[in-house]
Design brief:
- This protein is mainly alpha-helical.
- Helix content is about 70%, strand content about 0%.
- It contains nine helices and no strands.
- The two termini are about 35 Å apart.
Length: about 220
């Protein structure tokens, strides 16, 4: 057994993580379809079945490594849905909408989860049914993790580094010459992001953006 590894807590974490990354990718593909690109639909990726979107490293190993290493945020990702941006009409508007769809979905899931958390918290405060208290505690944790994970995914994906959504939005809005320079970063973007995660270089991002949002939605 790994040190400090709690199987139940990991399950409570992994469920909202899988929901968050799956919904994020499906949102990209759905908006792409609405804007003229059926690539994700043709690939069978407009499904809410997490198995169709799982990435072994991003959906399982990375969250475990971050959890065990005591990283300040829990992060994961699914296989990106295939999108042919050249099919989008209009191109710029379509690209911005497709890129922002996942972020908007994660913010929406965070708000919905916060609603569930607050309802259950009030039931617990009022006493509820005694026999249901252990289930209520598990659900409270699940909703709390869902809020945190979705906020992390939303804010993290807004970082203007390709291939993140923020990087794609920035790229399409820049002049052509600057756009070409930004694209040089994309092959190394993932390595840069993993480095930032494991060196805790994103602590400032958490302090100024994610923590206040978590406190707002979960009531501190």
């Amino acid at each position: 057994m790994l040190p400090n590894f709690n199987l139940l807590e990991f399950i409570i974490i992994i469920i909202p993580l899988l929901v968050a990354v799956t919904a994020h990718e499906v949102a990209h593909g759905y908006i792409a379809l609405k804007m003229g690109d059926p690539t994700a639909k043709n690939a069978g990726r407009l499904s809410l079945n997490p198995i169709r979107h799982l990435d072994i490293f991003g959906s399982f190993l990375l969250p475990v490594i971050l959890k065990l290493s005591g990283a300040p945020i829990l992060f994961g990702y699914a296989k990106p849905v295939p999108v042919n941006f050249a099919n989008l009409r209009p191109y710029k508007t379509g690209t911005v909408l497709v890129a922002s769809a996942g972020v908007v979905t994660n913010f929406a899931l965070a708000i919905i989860s916060a609603g569930g958390f607050q309802i259950l918290r009030h039931i617990k405060i009022l006493g509820g049914i005694l026999i249901l208290q252990p289930i209520i505690m598990i659900l409270l944790k699940l909703f709390a993790y869902s809020v945190m994970i979705n906020l992390v995914l939303a804010v993290f994906n807004l970082i203007p580094i390709p291939p993140l959504d923020g990087g794609r939005i920035l790229t399409v809005l820049l002049p052509i010459r600057a756009r070409q320079k930004i694209k040089y970063i994309e092959p190394f973007g993932f390595v840069i992001l993993i480095f930032l995660l494991f060196t805790r270089s994103l602590d400032l991002l958490i302090t100024f953006f994610i923590t206040p949002l978590i406190n707002l939605l979960l009531g501190g």
